[in-house]
# Entry
Amino acid sequence: MAPAGGSARSLSLEALELLPHTIHRTTSDHSELLRSPECDVAVFDATAELSQAAGIVARLDTVGLRLPVVIALSEGGLAAANPAWGAADIVFAGAGVAEVDARLRLARRADEQPDESGGPTTIGGITVDEDSYTATAGDRGLDLTYKEFELLKFLTQNPGRVFSRAQLLQDVWGYDYYGGTRTVDVHVRRLRAKLGPELEASIFTVRNVGYRFSPDFSPEPDDETPEVQEHDDEQR
# Structure
């Protein structure tokens, strides 16, 4: 799906063309959406019009198209991804066939499952609310990016369990993610900084293995995370 006013023939997510799916091309113009056939997943190409990504889910709802939306973003657009968009997932427009296929299948599977979210959950002084995509540390709201929220949610849902960087990369960023494991260290550092000195140690480094979320953490700060240089391509 191309942005309103764009061409339905253009699609930056080239890997989609190589998958055995029936593709219906359209734009997000209201008149075009009204003529859209029934689909399992909508893929919105926001590489050229990032500003339209925020309202695409609501626009589909207005015409009765309630289906999971995967938003394709440019490398620069990944840093601006926001949970408030309501998308089922986001994907880098240059992603490989395996990753695009996995994200489409997961988006469809999640849509078919009953909503079992029970609102906010609190553990170790941290509250994560999947419904509103918000998180708090104590009584302080956290300003998290999309992937920071997903990482915090994943860790707090698995307290005490140790995950390698490769596991976190696959489970949080998605199969065949191209960024490399150093992006996990970058996001852990950012999360710790936002949690603050009272709660930063709840994300514990297991030397030579990875990370775990420890609700009953030691107040000693954890400084074992490798020093990494942060670049624009790591802001996912």
The first strand starts at residue 42 and ends at 45.
